[in-house]
């Protein structure tokens, strides 16, 4: 019998909203917590970020790949000028450490997809695969000590 699958999708806007929402997302309540960071949309529903526009249908199409009880946050990072500021809270946050958008991360793991990676079904399969959460990079031979701290997905690129 296949385990029960349940997905909550929540939209948040800005840094304070995602930080508050993550505090409220009880780890005991969810098996997996995902955050997709994307550019704000205009009055016509189109993001100022062309890479985000390209990634959106891939992300939507992959949400059915989540397993167990999961929560998926769709996080809007703000307008272009605010995002481009090097001191933007999303960029300097020690957990998020965003360098670009779109970015999809799985909280509590080192799994992260950025930009064009968010448009690759094979990589989206990996990020939603609970069986690959444990980083096996250190098990690889000839991997430097700094690389052994990276997720297997990170070493692929």
Written description of the protein model:
Belongs to the thioredoxin family. The protein is α/β, with parallel strands linked by helices and 157 residues long. The chain has six helices and five strands. It has a five-stranded mixed beta sheet, with helices on both faces. Residues 135-157 have low confidence and may be disordered.
What structural class should be given to the helix and strand makeup?
A: alpha/beta
Integer average pLDDT: 84
Please provide the ordered H/E string of secondary-structure elements.
Answer: EHEHEHHEEHH
Gyration radius, rounded? 16 Å
Could you give the distance between the termini? 36 Å
Spatially, the strands of the biggest sheet line up as: 1-3-2-4-5
The percentage helix is 25-40%
Shape summary: globular
* Major sheet characteristics: 5 strands, mixed
Please state roughly what percent of the residues sit in beta strands, choosing from under 5%, 5-15%, 15-25%, 25-35%, 35-45% or over 45%. Answer: 15-25%
Uncertain segments are 135-157
Number of strands: 5
Please, how many helices? 6
What brief labels describe this structure?
5-stranded mixed beta sheet; Thioredoxin-like_sf; TXNDC17-like; 157 residues; 6 helices; 19% strand; alpha/beta; protein-disulfide reductase [NAD(P)H] activity
């Amino acid at each position: 019998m296949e385990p029960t699958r349940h997905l909550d999708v929540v939209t948040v806007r800005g840094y304070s909203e995602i930080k508050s929402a993550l505090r409220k997302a009880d780890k005991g309540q969810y098996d997996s917590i995902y955050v997709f960071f994307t550019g704000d949309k205009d009055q016509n529903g189109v993001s100022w970020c062309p890479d985000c526009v390209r990634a959106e249908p891939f992300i939507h199409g992959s949400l059915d790949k989540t397993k167990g009880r999961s929560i998926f946050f769709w996080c809007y990072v703000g307008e272009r000028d605010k995002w481009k500021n090097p001191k933007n809270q999303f960029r300097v946050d020690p957990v998020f450490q965003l360098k670009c958008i779109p970015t999809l991360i799985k909280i509590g793991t080192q799994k992260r997809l950025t930009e064009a990676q968010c448009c690759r079904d094979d990589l989206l399969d990996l990020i939603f695969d609970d069986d690959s959460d444990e980083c096996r990079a250190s098990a690889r031979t000839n991997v430097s000590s700094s690389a052994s701290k990276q997720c297997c997905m990170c070493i692929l690129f």
